[in-house]
């Protein structure tokens, strides 16, 4: 049994635990690194988890444990407030492949449409991360560019980032 809900600052410790697990398990998928995340205090995630003008984070719980999350960040600068940037898409390994990622993305896009003023969503995804790319394409995201060698791991491996966008029809 899973439950999807808007996360709040009080969820910061659980969010930090999930994020650390994901950064350690999938270093090539994220721009942040696991060691910096480990040193980061839980309450530093409070702003990310406070829904408002700056965006929102949805989470999915299974048996009361946070197992997935996705954040939509909205810039503070006036000329960019029509953009929503999706970051930190993650579903814990034990829960992958069961539709939770698809659910998180659909709910985030739906909420972004209701936010008012958002004209498009953007995200970046490591080239070769087929699960994520297919998920985003299925939701209507299109690749508009690629930053070669965007991410460099501690062992020197370099990965390109695909840049994707989803226009939001305003009615
Ligand atoms: C990418 C991720 C969020 C997907 O979440 P998930 O819950 O496993 O995905 P879902 O079960 O909802 O699958 C949705 C779709 O994604 C694609 N997908 C999922 N797993 C896949 C796999 N192993 N191979 C290929 N496509 C896959 C499929 O299109 C799938 O749809 P389908 O089941 O109808 O075929 C999850 O695998 C994850 O957290 N990965 C590690 C971190 C990461 O890569 N984050 C994205 C950063 S941009």
From TrEMBL:
Keyword Zinc-finger: no
Keywords for this protein: Acyltransferase, Transferase
Domain N-acetyltransferase: 2-169
Name of one Pfam family that matches: Acetyltransf_1
InterPro entries with a match to the protein in the record: Acyl_CoA_acyltransferase (IPR016181), Bact_Acetyltransf (IPR050832), GNAT_dom (IPR000182)
PROSITE patterns from the UniProt entry: GNAT (PS51186)
CDD domains reported for this sequence: NAT_SF
Gene3D superfamilies per UniProt: 3.40.630.30
Name of the featured protein: GNAT family N-acetyltransferase
């Amino acid at each position: 049994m899973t439950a999807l809900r808007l996360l709040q600052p009080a969820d910061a410790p659980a969010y930090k635990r999930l994020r650390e697990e994901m950064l350690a398990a999938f270093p090539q998928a994220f721009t942040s690194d696991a060691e910096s995340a480990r040193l980061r205090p839980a309450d530093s995630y409070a702003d990310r988890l406070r829904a408002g003008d700056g965006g929102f984070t949805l989470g999915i719980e299974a048996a009361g444990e946070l197992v997935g999350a996705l954040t939509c960040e909205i810039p503070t600068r006036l000329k960019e407030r029509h953009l929503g940037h999706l970051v930190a898409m993650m579903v814990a390994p034990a829960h992958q492949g069961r539709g939770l990622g698809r659910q998180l993305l659909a709910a985030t896009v739906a909420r972004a449409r209701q936010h008012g003023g958002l004209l498009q969503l953007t995200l970046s995804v490591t080239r070769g991360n087929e699960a994520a790319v297919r998920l985003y394409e299925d939701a209507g995201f299109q690749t508009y560019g690629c930053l070669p060698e965007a991410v460099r791991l501690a062992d020197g491996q370099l990965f390109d980032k695909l840049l994707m966008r989803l226009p939001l029809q305003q009615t």
